[in-house]
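[recover] target loaded
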């Protein structure tokens, strides 16, 4: 994808993250793109859905699977506002996503390059290319603001 296209898709993911924050969810958004078209979108909804697996990435994969009538999503690119966790990395591998583009690093639980390098492990039956993309500072600031406000409301 071009830098302009990356920015457009990540901007949509960031808008989904902002909607999640407005709903009281941790602000993470994701879009899954196939053949240059968004085929699935997701935002964090673990609190509202009472589902610990309802991460933005998983929600985008579910939406794409339903739309395309297939749990395999070969050739697709997932744009997400935060480096995925272990669970989400596993979902990307199982869905056969071709590439992951994430905005901000997740130093506590990021399983792509921050705390683990799971997508670089050679033992999986599918390889997902990955890279850090645009809007990392915007995504990071949205997360920092969300948690700052959450801490202030608890004080």
């Amino acid at each position: 994808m071009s830098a302009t296209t990356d920015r457009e898709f990540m901007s949509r993911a960031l808008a989904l993250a902002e909607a999640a924050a407005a709903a009281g969810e941790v602000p993470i958004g994701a879009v899954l793109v196939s053949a240059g078209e968004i085929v699935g979108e997701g935002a964090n909804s673990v609190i509202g859905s009472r589902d610990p697996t309802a991460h933005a990435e998983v929600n985008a994969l579910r939406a794409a699977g339903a739309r395309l009538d297939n749990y395999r999503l070969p050739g697709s690119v997932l744009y997400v506002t935060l480096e995925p966790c272990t669970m989400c990395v596993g979902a990307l591998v199982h869905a056969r996503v071709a590439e992951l583009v994430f905005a901000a690093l997740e130093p506590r639980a990021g399983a792509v390059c921050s705390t683990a390098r799971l997508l670089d492990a050679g033992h999986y039956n599918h390889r997902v290319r990955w890279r850090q993309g645009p809007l990392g500072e915007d995504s990071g600031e949205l997360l920092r603001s969300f948690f700052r406000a959450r801490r202030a409301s608890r004080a």
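[recover] notes: The first strand starts at residue 29 and ends at 34.
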